[in-house]
Amino acid sequence: MWADPHYCNIGVPHNPHTCSCKMCQRHSGALTLAWVEFARDEVSWDGKGGEPKLWRSSQYSSLAFCANCGSTLSAIDDAPVIALALGVFDTNSRQSLQPISHSYSVNT
Predict the structure, then answer these.
(1) Cα separations (Å) of 3 from 38, 67, 71, 72, 85?
(2) 83, β-bridge pairs
(3) Contact (CB, 8 A) for 94 and 100
(4) Other CB atoms closer than 10 Å to residue 38's CB: what's the count?
(5) What digits encode the pLDDT tens for the residues 73-84?
(6) How far is CA 62 from CA 52, 74, 76, 91, in A?
(7) N or C: which end of the chain has fewer CB within 10 A?
(8) What is the longest distance spanned by two Cα atoms in the chain?
């Protein structure tokens, strides 16, 4: 979809889920954001722009976005996990990417 940056994931998807926390709402501009997690070493950024721009969003995670257009790309945790937004996949209808749980259905 994007050429700058573009990811190339080679790993097995884990924990496909949706989230409605305030941070995900602000990052996406939507009430709910769909994510799928990968081990950090299973995702590489291979577009001409290299890795996406990061914004430190909490004590344990950074949000990643395209520096050119601002599109939501991922959440990169300090733990060895990277969550890619389902919207960045060219083929996001694969069974292994279908959300199986939901986080933060109530915001306070």
Answers:
(1) 21, 12, 12, 14, 16
(2) 37, 75
(3) no
(4) 21
(5) 999 988 889 999
(6) 11, 9, 5, 25
(7) C
(8) 40
Whose tokens are 């995702």? That residue is 43
Tokens of 26: 């602000």
At position 79, the amino acid (one-letter code) is: A
Task: Determine the pLDDT at residue 47.
Answer: 75
CA distance linking residue 82 with residue 39, whole number of Å? 6
Q: What angle do CA 24, 43, 76 make, to 5 degrees?
A: 30
Q: Which positions ≥6 away from 49 have C-beta within 8 Å?
A: 3, 4, 5, 66, 67, 68
Beta pairing class for 14-19 and 101-103: parallel
Q: What is the pLDDT of residues 13-23, one digit of tens each?
A: 999 999 998 88
Tally the residues of the chain.
108
Helix (H) or strand (E) run with residue 8 in it: strand 7-9
